[in-house]
Amino acid sequence: MADMPVAPQSHDAHAAIRDLVGLLMPVVYHDRMPVPSPSPDARAVVTGASQGIGEALANELAARGHHLIITARRGDVLQTVADRITARHGVTVEIRPVDLTDSGARRDLGNELAERNISILCNNAGTATFGPVAALDPEGEQDQVALNVNAVHDLTLAVLPGMIGRAGGGILISGSAAGNSPIPNNATYAASKAFANTFSESLRGEVKKDGVHVTLLAPGPVRTELPDASERSLVEKLIPEFLWIDTEYTARVSLDALEHNRMRVVPGLTSKAMSVASGYAPRAVVAPIVGAVYKKLGGD
Questions:
Q1: What pLDDT digit, counting tens, does each position of 37-80 carry?
Q2: Were both Cys, which of 3, 60, 119, 276 would link to 251 (CB 3.0–4.6 Å)?
Q3: Active-site annotation holder among 189, 237, 249, 296
Q4: Residue 294 among the catalytic residues
């Protein structure tokens, strides 16, 4: 019997398999890469670093040996934070007093970061308002979008080309469990955090192959310590003690998650419960219930 001819497409099939393996191997390799180790010329950037989670992230990064650029609006407060971090950890801390709601100031900071070796970006700065959006100050609501959405987007775009070019970097974006579902009386905040949540998780899928880690931090209520009863805000009075999570714990588990390239870190019982509720309960049921709670936070 004559030899059977080899199907002309067989070589093409083998080549296609080799090409597929070649495409997949960098994904596997880069997904295991850690975020860049501390180095003298590299900087980890933390926005909103004057208090809360931002200050805790700056402290935790410094404890791990990273030199820093920290930003917030008030230069005097930033300098105090920087001096305290340097005294404790011996790292370089550069301060940038910047109002990230200002497009020009945001652009200037982004231009600087684009030229620097930024190893880690913690897009943490954010603000919230409570109450019916029609009754709130329009300028304040616009500033909230600028800070919670535009600053996250602009600064990420500024550092991303450099991270991809160096085949390494980490981006931690502070979203929120509130961004998982509609929240009446917290409309602008919930919508802005929905952007942060979706942008972070979408971006992660795009840059895994480039060695860049992207992790979403989606916390519930966070604080450093409980104030005296006379100094507690309405939020602190309404939310039970056991539901609060510590800022230092939040910073530590968030940076651990970034190191391991986890998609999302959800510290705290409240945020986990909100994530589950938004995933399984009908929005038409959840929104009025949560909205009633947030109406109280607006003072009604």
A1: 999 999 999 999 999 999 999 999 999 999 999 999 999 999 99
A2: 60
A3: 189
A4: no
Residue 165, burial from CB neighbour count under 10 angstroms (0-12, 13-18, 19+): exposed
H helices present in the chain, as ranges: 10-31, 52-63, 75-89, 103-115, 138-145, 151-166, 187-207, 234-238, 247-259, 269-280, 283-297
Average pLDDT, stretch 25-30?
Answer: 37
List phi, psi (to 5°) of 273.
-65, -40
- 189 catalytically annotated: yes
Cβ contacts of residue 181 below 8 Å, gap of 6+?
Answer: 190, 274, 277, 278, 283, 286, 287, 290
* Tens digits of residue pLDDT in 111-161: 999 999 999 999 999 999 999 999 999 999 999 999 999 999 999 999 999
Higher pLDDT, 296 or 131: 131
**CATH class of the domain whose range is 38-297:** alpha beta
What are the two backbone dihedrals, phi and then psi, of residue 50, each rounded to the nearest 5 degrees? -80, -15
Domain regions of the chain by residue span: 38-297
Strand order of the sheet with strand 212-217? 93-97, 68-72, 43-47, 118-123, 169-174, 212-217, 264-265
> Taken in order 48, 53, 56, 58, is the CA torsion positive or negative?
negative
State the catalytic residue, choosing from 193, 208, 209, 237.
193
